[in-house]
Amino acid sequence: MARTSGGWRLIPAEVEPERLARLLLVSPMVAVLSAVGAVVSCAPYVNGPVDRELMVWLVLFGAVSLARVLAALHAPRARSLQTHPRRWALWGLGSTLVHGLQWGGLSVVLWVPGNPQAESILHITLAAVAMGSAVHLSGFYRVLAVFVVCVLGPLVLRDLFVGSPYHALMAMMIFLIGVYTLLNGRNQAQLIEALHRENQRSEAARRAAEAANAARTRFFAAANHDLRQPLHAMGLLAQTLHARGPKATPVDVAETAEIAGHLVECVEGMTHVVDDLLEITRLDVGHLAPQRSVFALDELLRETCQPYQALARDKGLQLTVDAGPLAVCSDRALVARVLANLVSNAIRYTRAGAVRLYARAEGDQVVLRVEDTGIGIAPEHLPRIFEEFYQVGNPARDRRLGLGLGLATVKRLSELLSLSVSVQSAPGQGSVFTLMLPLAAGHERAPLPLGGIHAAEPLIASQRVLVIEDDADSRHALLGLLRQWGCDARAAPGAREALASLDQGFTPDVLVVDLRLADGASGLDAITALRAAVGHDLPALVVTGDAGSEPMREAQARGFAVLIKPARPVQLRAFLSQASVAH
Predict the structure, then answer these.
(1) Are strands 430-438 and 420-426 parallel, antiparallel or unpaired?
(2) Is the model's pLDDT at 202 over the cut of 70?
(3) Among residues 420, 435, 440, 454, which one has the least CA distance to residue 326?
(4) Per the domain annotation, does 400 fall within a domain?
(5) Which of 502, 433, 511, 513 is nearest to 469 (CA)?
(6) Residue of 387, 383, 434, 425 lying closest to 408 (CA atoms)
(7) Per DSSP, which regions of 415-539 are E strands?
(8) Is residue 159 part of a domain?
(9) 382 CB contacts (<8 Å, ≥6 apart)?
(10) How many distinct helices (H) and strands (E) make up the chain?
(11) pLDDT higher than threshold 60 for residue 459
(12) Which of 139-143, 169-173, 540-544 is the least confident region?
């Protein structure tokens, strides 16, 4: 029996309708067989010294049996079996215990021993009743235990009271039968509970799979829209440019610049969709495994914010970091992804004021907050903001307001890293997203030098950049962008051509290398060969479209900066700036 706030409960406070229905289903058969057994047990004692008491017992037993049959036949049609299962449990299990008391009372009624044949029939009947209960009451072990004691306990006491050797032997046998019944019933109850838990797990897994399938359907429906929209716009814009031909008036030049700006926005939007889709997909299929290490959180905060400084300045916002020399233990790359999503989201929804990253140690945790003075979030929307594609105030799905995947990625990555993430927000007052990271004990660091993200971006003009990319379109596009930034850039389709550039006197400051080159060649091998040729470790950026692949993980393990295609120019520029500082 289980202890509850109301005391010891014989009948559970909560009863599963399915289990109760199975009990009631066999109740008519059990009641009929019990009635037959009662008649057979009492027949040899009729016309004896307890004839009147025996008749009263039979009438009461028959009345309870009839009531149990009628109730069990009505139960399948009763709606209350599902809505109020405890009422039916009180009746079904309560009437079972009443029958147990009646069977035990029979031993008291027949206190005068009969002939050996009548005594054998009585003992066999009561033993069969007790053993049979282990089958239909195994789902309610407490009731089974009380039932067996009620049926066999008085019989054992009666036999001991009579005191003959025959009855003493029968008392011992009935006692052993009772113990066996209880042990067997407990084993069956444990088996039923194990099967029940397994069924619950299977049902929960089925519901989770159905929910995931429905969510995936909604997910890809929204992704389909957000990918087709920029593609549609890019096609129209490209056709507009193509139709103008080589001759252009000053008005056409201005309009061309505007169209080019729209094309950049479309490409940027598609890049966000693809990046977030890949991130969510990798999380869903379990390809992301945390690579935990101890790292400087304040350095990571400044690195994360650096690419967003220009965007914040364009909106007139202050992007600041307030963090001491803190070291945490987690996956640096994944934490950076979480922070980038939070910072990007904060800047996007802040029209005026500031975005501030704050970190302080509290006990064995680091409290990291991303605070903004943005539009805020109404309380009714807060529970859903971590859902895929859920956005507040963007029913038209304007790509400039994001895609609704950033916070979903934050939530999933935080769960993967076992980080606590919470949000506080109010309309018109901004939002505060809080992360709790494990503090790395015993890793004291000196503060960073002054400057950080507030220092001016290093100039990348005149940097010598060697690009190795086997795809001709990507190679020419990247080469053109670098030269537009003022870089002295060369490009090669493979390692052999890149080494030939060195022989021609071009000594690069930075390498930008595709991970997978033609004919199965590896960009990592190309970097190794070029570094050996120049005699020192050139800063190298690995660019790849194989997100989550083994070669990508190898590149990260070897300490290379990795950029996943489609690459954003701001990310490439940030890498070149850092490489310029290191150089």
Answers:
(1) antiparallel
(2) yes
(3) 440
(4) yes
(5) 513
(6) 387
(7) 420-426, 430-438, 464-468, 488-492, 510-514
(8) yes
(9) 423, 425
(10) 17, 14
(11) no
(12) 139-143
